Amino acid sequence: MCAAPTQGQAIPAGVDVEKETVITGKVVANDGQPVGGAFVRLLDGTGEFTAEVVASGTGDFRFFAAPGDWTVRALSSSGNGDAKVRPESNGIHNVDVTVSA
Q1: Which Pfam families match (predicted)?
Q2: Cβ(68)–Cβ(86) under 8 Å?
Q3: Residue 69 is part of which domain span?
Q4: Is residue 8 part of a domain?
Q5: What's the number of domains the chain is made of?
Q6: What is the per-residue pLDDT for 69?
Q7: CATH of the domain at 92
Q8: Closest to 63 in 3D by CA, of 89, 88, 19, 95
Q9: Is the dihedral of CA 7, 10, 13, 18 positive or negative?
Q10: In a domain, 2, yes or no
Q11: pLDDT at 1 > cutoff 50
């Protein structure tokens, strides 16, 4: 059993998005439908594993990171997918990951 935390849409109270870099998004299938329960990994600019969460039932995920080059990788029974994101500053940065078999 994985200990990765399940995600939701709301940013937790007390998080100052002007001081933090938040990477958030949704895991979706090719038809645009959300994919819940996917394992979502955050990889740094060299491809090294940094963190993992479980997407919510509506496919939502969230990471607190630093500005830089990141890959978000989703692994699910519906398939796998990657998306690149490059936050250059603090704030909320959205990226959706499409998975396919």
Answers
A1: DUF1416
A2: yes
A3: 21-99
A4: no
A5: 1
A6: 97
A7: 2.60.40.1120
A8: 95
A9: positive
A10: no
A11: no
Q: Is residue 74 part of a domain?
A: yes
Is the distance from CB of 17 to CB of 88 less than 8 angstroms? Answer: no
Average pLDDT over residues 38-43: 98
SS3 17: coil
Structural domain contains residue 50: yes
CB contact burial 34-67 (16+ within 10 A = b; e otherwise): bbbebbbbbbeeeeeeeebbbbbeebbbbbebee
Which residue is it, tokens 């998080």?
15
Measured between alpha carbons, how far is 83 from 94 in angstroms, rounded to an integer?
Answer: 11
Using the structure block, give the residue that is written with the tokens 């690149």.
84
Q: Which residues contact 71 (CB under 8 A, 6 or more apart)?
A: 42, 43, 47, 82, 83, 84, 85
Region 2-28 average pLDDT: 72
Q: Kindly report the pTM of this predicted structure.
A: 0.84
